[in-house]
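Technical annex B. To support the medicinal chemistry partners, we prepared a structural model of the target in complex with cytidine-5'-diphosphate, based solely on the information shown next.
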Amino acid sequence: MSIEATPKGSMGVAMKRKEDPRFLQGKGNYVDDLSFPGMLHMAIVRSPYPHAEIVNIDGSAALKVPGVKAVITGKDLEAAGLGWLPTFHGYDKQMVLAIGKVLFQYQEVAAVFAESRAAAADGAEAVEVEYKPLPVVADPFVAKQDEVLLRPDREAKTNHIYHWEVGDKDKTAQALGAAEKVIKQRIWFPRCHPAPLEPCGCVAQFDTMGRLTFHVTSQAPHVYRTAITIVTGIPEDKIRVISPDIGGGFGNKVPVYPGYVCAIVGALKLGRPVKWIESRTENLTSTGFARDYHMDVEIGARADGTVTALRVSTTADHGAFDAAADPTKYPAGMFGVVTGSYTFPVAHAEVDAYFTNKAPGGIAYRCSFRVTEASYAIERGMDILADELGMDPVELRRKNFVRKDQFPYASALGFTYDSGDYHRTLDVALEKIGYQALLKQQAEKRAKGELMGIGFSTFTEVVGAGPSKHFDILGIKMFDSAEIRIHPTGSGIVRAGTKSQGQGHETTWAQIVAEELGLDPQNIMVEEGDTDTAPYGLGTYASRSTPVAGAAIAMAARRIRERARKIAAHLMEVGEGDVEWKDYKFQVKGVPAKSVTMKEVAFAAYTNPGQNEPGLEATQYYDPPNMTFPHGAYVAVVDVDRETGEVKVRRFLAVDDCGTVINPLIVEGQIHGGLTEGFAIAFMQEIQYDKDGNNLNTNFTDYLVPTSLESPKWETANTVTPSPHHPIGAKGVGESPNVGSPAAFVNAVIDALSPFGVRHIDMPITRDKVWRAIRDSDPAKG
Ligand code: CDP
């Protein structure tokens, strides 16, 4: 292990060589800041109807608006063979601009190009579209009945998109039939949206040689380049995709959106650069939403609480197009991790997905492809089981945890969990939160009629997609890459196939290289997001960067070390076998005084390499042998006002285990941000549609984003169980707080309401819902 535990460190692990982990690199360069000579702006005409035939589109008035240069429609694109986009996981395709009909409110209908952003917006207003409304299906359970066929363009004449299942159906049914206790609950994880502060945008520019430079807010620039080739036929070598700085992605910036295709077509047609920047409303109403899983959870158990079976049947609302970016073989993502941290001997999970007249998506919002939904289902389910058995939810969890000595653990749904120590992480949480004292206080408060709740979530994640034998997107295997060059004076550059959107790769990638090579991290430049310079990689989402690219970086650095060892031997005039890497330098074995630093070796690599190959560079592609399985124990403490239904989160503790920590400060920042999102999802956010398919949350006054005023104060701690197969033992962490926290919040509220016999409330848990739950369950309050 090159990055080792420092028991005294407050976060458990710190970089040995970096005394101050608060070292951060950074720059500022966003798509919206870009401007090129002759640049045009694009605006999109969007449908006010959720489902309607397009009778006619007339752009003649728009073309009279000063500054407007062109209007394109779905018919124009279809004529050019660009009418439809393939979706990343290959189960569906998506209209670029509406062809024949619209399928959701705010769908893209036409694109207008003009000399200024204002002129483009005026032009879009002037485009006249005649619609003939069609019946709307805004509910997946109605879609199931196939009374209105939403997608006649597809071969299968049904609204059903796919059925996916994993596990042993028959044995699970038998075990549930034989169980001494069975709980069953419909749990809905509502539709929410990543809502990055910077919406999506791009600038498409062709040079005089016909080469496209495409600046775009993409989490996966290389995949975009390949997708642009597939859609437009422009050869990949004639495309350079650059993702500059990105103001948050959270999964929202993984799919290729219609606006991007329109901007490229506009730039090609008009021979000028074209810029398109979404509005907040466009982002919330037409780009990838998340969740919208209706999960029927059944858990079988013995009377003593030992779990015997799990069955989860899900109805998924995918909107108008199945535009999720899941790996090809995983239409429901990693939902199979729904057995969580518990030893279910048998389990069965199935997902049936349906089209509705809503925006497309189903993206992995700060989540390793449906892990958040799975984690929420099992963590709520375990609490309901504890309640019905009259057991402490902590004891029920502890009793059923996968034990430390059971790793690597083969789950009933097919994953092999790499490592974990669930009992220890829970113990740390219980001690830090002071569980016994809280229980005592809760009993005292209850005696006085006050409502206090304590909620747990002891989740396991699966991140690091992924091993090439299972994982691909559009057929491209999900490995990742790194290229490192060390310059003569001992500084260097590392390039990776990932793309940070604020996760701090500029810092952590430099730290990995510095740690492996004994160099100063401040002199390691990190570059990502330019397909002309970075090696091919699948990008950053689903906490895959550290498990995959982080490993590639460590291994590329080790390759460099091996090359450097030869030059060190030459410099010290000994055989290569006599040289060892110790205390961050090369030493002659047994003669510590005789040593050379990597900096000295780097200089020699360009000035005096001897018989060795000059230069000091390496490229590494890394195909992970397995996913990594971070885990955590989260505790929420809430107080509920029985008169108003107001919930106050008094405390929230997150104990995370992401294996070896590269940078404690960055990890803490990841946890704080993700918990704030989890808090918002639990209490404030939902993309709602009325029965007529109208989107009710089109801006930040209706779709609430928590500020520091609403957010609780986060308490964090960690344990370290390194991944056995990752070169530095690191697991991903970015998704954990968003995955783990919703269940802790909801479990705490339901615990607070347990005197009223309340069993479940779907998120977001608003005052109104709490107040009604109290009223409806307590006749005295009615
Ligand atoms: O793929 P993404 O970057 O979103 O997620 P990640 O791999 O979980 O990493 C998020 C940030 O936390 C990166 O800067 C990582 O290098 C850092 N990290 C860390 O310092 N130690 C870990 N064990 C995991 C992540």
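Notes passed to the chemistry partners:
The mean pLDDT is 95.
The CA atoms of residues 163 and 352 lie 5 Å apart.
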